[in-house]
Design brief:
Bound molecules: D-xylose, nickel (II) ion
Distance between the termini: 44 Å
Number of strands: 14
Shape: globular
Length: 438
């Protein structure tokens, strides 16, 4: 047995809702069947490499606080391999089936692109071995095209064509490793694809370059034979003032405009939705309506803080609403519930990583059960269906099928004289019904 990074902690087991053991699941019972499917397969939990392995708890005002025995600070490949082992020990003990990475989380930056690629190859080989040994799988990979100073003006949307080429080379390599590690999908989050001021920005040209970049990625994916979906992860701001992939609607418009919609789905993150002035459920519904609901980054923000605080989700309204939208759209296929979340700076102990993930997984398990109960009860969906019944026959059905004209509508309205039978929207009653299930 190689070195243990979490020696005092064994596998997290399901003990049921009355358990007081902080290192046990109270609600996430992987084998429990909900709507004909095991919880494990509904939720498809993933742990992120960046926050969980690389996050040190620093902020603008203070150094890192976190106790992380695998962070030696040397930045070597040897170090990175130790870290990969720590990651798989953690994910294995937690019992999550998936993990996610950025290329530069797993392996260190080299002095040149060739050296970075070499580093990545060395750690990638170790990841492949660890996956085979543990059965833990890659939900998605992505390229970290925002940390290095060369990306200060953007990556695919940089004013420099040279930088565009570095970004392309990085995505090419990250795609190769995602494919080699049997990743279920691949994510694009436009870390600096946006601007700080329009005074120095040719917006149209930058958007065109982003479209070109995505087409090149699609071509390379085909060449590789990678079958998983591409996802775009919307976010309105941070680090830039305005990011081009600002919300689900903006992403869908971009994908349609550049003829990319068939190749992409969306990866929706709660904290990004709220930064965009939307609810998570709104973003899921917009993506779902376009048939593009792919995967989620599970976290939450803080109403009083205006940035991506990436907290663990522990709100039952949030998780039940998310699971309601996911179940209504047919459930995850290649996507999953990825904890793009970090423990607070004050939660600096190793076991806090377990507490945080257990809290998130239990809250999602309850959210799933609540959503399934709401669907079984049927009152809420029934109310919505009934609310639109005027579209099921007569003039409504004629309009929906495209067979009615303005003149037909006018004739109908003239015949009625006035609308006298409008019904209440009943928001408060519906909220009370929802509460019955919490
Ligand atoms: C940052 C994003 C990022 C993506 C992956 O806000 O959430 O972590 O998920 O690049
Ligand atoms: Ni994210
Ligand atoms: Ni984020």
């Amino acid at each position: 047995m190689s070195k243990q990074f979490f020696p005092g902690i064994s596998s997290i087991e399901f003990e049921g809702r009355d358990s007081k053991n902080p290192l046990a699941f109270k609600h996430y019972n992987a084998d429990e069947v909900v709507e004909g499917k095991a919880m494990r397969d509904h939720l498809r939990f993933a742990v992120v490499y960046w926050h969980t392995m690389r996050g040190a708890g620093g902020d603008m005002f203070g150094w890192g606080t976190a106790e992380r025995p695998w962070q030696t600070g040397e930045g070597t490949v040897k170090d990175a391999i130790q870290r990969a082992r720590a990651m798989f020990e953690f994910v294995g003990k937690l019992g999550a089936p998936f993990y996610c990475w950025h290329d530069r989380d797993v392996a260190p930056h080299g002095k040149t692109l060739a050296e970075s690629n070499k580093n990545f190859d060395a750690v990638g080989a170790e990841l492949k071995k660890l996956q085979a040994d543990t059965g833990i799988r890659l939900l998605w990979g992505t390229a970290q095209n925002f940390v290095h100073p060369r990306y200060m003006h953007g990556a695919a949307t940089s004013c420099s064509a040279d930088v565009f080429c570095f970004a392309a080379a990085q995505v090419k390599k990250a795609l190769e490793w995602t494919h080699e590690l049997d990743g279920e999908g691949y994510v694009f989050w436009g870390g600096r694809e946006g601007y700080s001021t329009l005074l120095n920005t040719d917006l149209k040209r930058e958007m065109d370059h982003l479209g070109r970049f995505m087409h090149m990625a699609v071509d390379y994916k085909r060449k590789l034979g990678f079958k998983g979906p591409f996802y775009i992860e919307p976010k309105p701001k941070e680090p830039t003032k305005h990011q081009y992939d600002s919300d689900a609607a903006a992403c869908l418009n971009f994908l349609r405009e550049y003829g990319l919609l068939e190749h992409f789905k969306l990866n929706i993150e709660t904290n990004h939705a709220t930064l965009a002035g939307h609810t998570m459920q709104h973003e899921l519904e917009v993506a779902g309506a376009a048939g593009a609901l792919g995967s989620i980054d599970a976290n939450t923000g803080d109403l009083l803080l205006g940035w991506d605080t990436d907290q663990f989700p522990t709100d039952l309204y949030l998780t039940s609403q998310i699971m309601l939208s996911i179940l209504n759209s047919g459930g995850f296929t290649t996507g999953g519930t990825n904890f793009d979340a970090k423990v607070r700076r004050e939660s600096f102990k190793l076991e806090d990583l377990f507490h945080a993930h257990i809290a998130g997984m239990d809250t999602f398990a309850r959210g799933l059960k609540i959503a399934a109960a709401i669907r079984k009860d049927g009152r809420l969906a029934g109310f919505v269906k009934n609310r639109y019944r005027s579209w099921d026959s007569g003039i409504g059905a004629k309009i929906e099928s495209g067979k009615a004209s303005f003149s037909d509508c006018e004739k109908h309205a003239l015949k009625l004289g006035e609308v006298n039978d409008l019904e209440s929207g009943r928001q408060e009653l519906l909220e009370a019904i929802y509460n019955e299930f919490i």
